[in-house]
Automatic annotation (TrEMBL):
Any one Gene Ontology BP term: carbohydrate metabolic process
Signal peptide location: 1-22
Family under the similarity heading: Belongs to the glycosyl hydrolase 28 family.
Active site: 267
Designated name of the protein: endo-polygalacturonase
Chief place where the protein resides: secreted
Reaction catalysis annotation: (1,4-alpha-D-galacturonosyl)n+m + H2O = (1,4-alpha-D-galacturonosyl)n + (1,4-alpha-D-galacturonosyl)m
GO MF entry, a single one: polygalacturonase activity
Pfam families xrefs: Glyco_hydro_28 (PF00295)
Enzyme Commission code(s) on record: 3.2.1.15
Alphabetical keyword list: Cell wall, Cell wall biogenesis/degradation, Glycosidase, Hydrolase, Secreted, Signal
Keyword Nuclease tagged: no
Length: 424
């Protein structure tokens, strides 16, 4: 009997020690995560490690279901949750939708790598436009310093823009945020997306910061950051090198602030295209400030289709440095990205109250300023202030062309604006 009591006492001690050690480990992890970027201040977070839900992290086995299970558990937590993708491993993930609403705030801590399948056959026809979708979440932070790699090479190879003989089909956006409020996405690397790298859709109160977005300059339709139908968005301290627009700003975007962004290669920073297929577009209060562009096909651009309606107004492009940029300043209300010529139409998206201020650097084309506006709805309130754009290599002078544009000049502007303007 005494021996049995001794064994029982020893077992009790071991159990207590195990509980204490486990509690200590949880407390240590929580404390470290509380000090991590994005952790709710003063809150003890519950950690949901995808390895505890079956993830292998070898880059070969499919970890999609493990990530889905870990997300479900985190989303169901009444306490602030941390969904952890550990450092030093690669997690193969197919198409996945991580949905809310969730019971508490979530920090999606990507420290390792999330990698897409190499084969296009991993996507069905119903989901080929998306890879990772996060939707209907309030109070989400995505951070961690890790990598999201779309493995897009096979998609670019089979694009109709790369091979004219192929039919045009959509390709996945690497990371999509849909119907999210109070969203932070920061300190991540997004590489080689199949098409758009990061898309913000129908969201509000969004902060995008310290993102590195990279794909070859020849990769088709690989926009860096795409924003549509969203308001109160901030983008700052980002490095974007892609094969399409560094930042594309689409219809329904209001109160967007972009600052301290380096862009190139790519197609520059574009508002639009707007009004395609005779649609209505509304864009306002766009502030682009402190941007450097290297070797891009465009700098500060607004592009709209004929036949559209609506407006693009209250827009500021300022404090921009152009280095070897093809079209530094351009408004194009006759945009046409079609294999067939676009027919002339009378209606247009109204472009008004646009400021281009303190823009300097070099261009590889003589036309440094192009304002190609609608005959029936001319651009109005276009301000050109303190601009100095010179031809790369200093061989000759830059020029400007204007059509149906109502503009004003302030300070020193090179090239002299719109000498052949039809409408002033």
């Amino acid at each position: 009997m005494a021996s049995a009591k001794l064994v029982s006492s020893r077992l009790l001690v071991l159990v207590l020690l195990s509980i204490c050690n486990a509690a200590s480990l949880v407390e240590e992890t929580n404390n470290s995560l509380k000090s991590s970027p994005g952790a709710p201040p003063g809150a003890s977070s519950v950690v949901f490690n995808i390895h505890n839900y079956g993830a292998r992290g070898d880059g070969k086995h499919d970890d999609t279901q493990a990530l889905a299970k870990a997300w479900k558990a985190a989303c169901s937590s009444w306490r602030p949750a941390v969904l952890l993708v550990p450092k030093g491993k690669s997690y193969l993930v197919k198409f996945i939708a991580l949905s809310g609403p969730c019971k508490s705030s979530i920090v999606f801590m990507v420290k390792g790598k999330l990698v897409a399948p190499r084969s296009r056959s991993a996507w069905g026809e119903n989901n080929r436009r998306h890879w990772i979708v996060i939707q209907r979440i309030a109070g989400l932070t995505v951070t961690g310093g890790g990598t999201i790699n779309g493995k897009g090479k096979i998609w670019w190879k089979n694009s109709c823009k790369t091979n004219k003989g192929l039919p045009c089909k959509g390709a996945p956006t690497a990371l999509t945020f849909h119907l999210c409020n109070n969203l932070k996405v920061e300190n991540l690397k997004i590489l080689n997306s199949q098409q758009i790298h990061l898309s913000v859709e129908d969201c509000s109160n969004v902060q995008l910061a310290r993102l590195s977005i990279t794909a070859p300059g020849t990769s088709p339709n690989t926009d860096g950051i795409h924003i549509t139908h969203s308001r109160d968005v901030q983008v700052r301290d980002c490095l974007i090198k892609t094969g399409d627009d560094c930042i594309s700003i689409e219809s329904g975007t209001h109160n967007l602030h972009v600052t301290r962004v380096v862009c190139g290669p790519g197609h520059g920073i574009s508002i639009g295209s707007l009004g395609d297929d005779n649609s209505r577009a509304e864009v306002s209060r766009i502030y682009i400030d402190t941007v450097r562009l290297y070797g891009t096909t465009n700098g500060a651009r607004i592009k709209t289709w004929q036949g559209g309606s609506g407006y693009a107004k209250d827009i500021i492009f300022q404090n921009m440095i152009m280095d070897n940029v093809q079209n530094p300043i351009i408004i194009d209300q006759n945009y046409c990205d079609s294999a067939k010529p676009c027919k002339n139409q009378e209606s247009a998206v109204e472009v008004s109250s646009v400021v281009f201020k303190n823009i300097r650097g070099t261009t590889i084309s003589k036309d440094a300023i192009k304002l190609s506006c609608s005959k029936n709805l001319p651009c109005s309130g276009i301000a050109l202030e303190d601009i100095d754009l010179k031809l790369q290599g200093g061989k000759g002078d830059t020029e400007s062309t204007c059509q149906n544009a109502k503009w004003r000049k302030s300070g020193n502007v090179v090239p002299l604006p719109c000498k052949s303007s039809k409408t002033k």
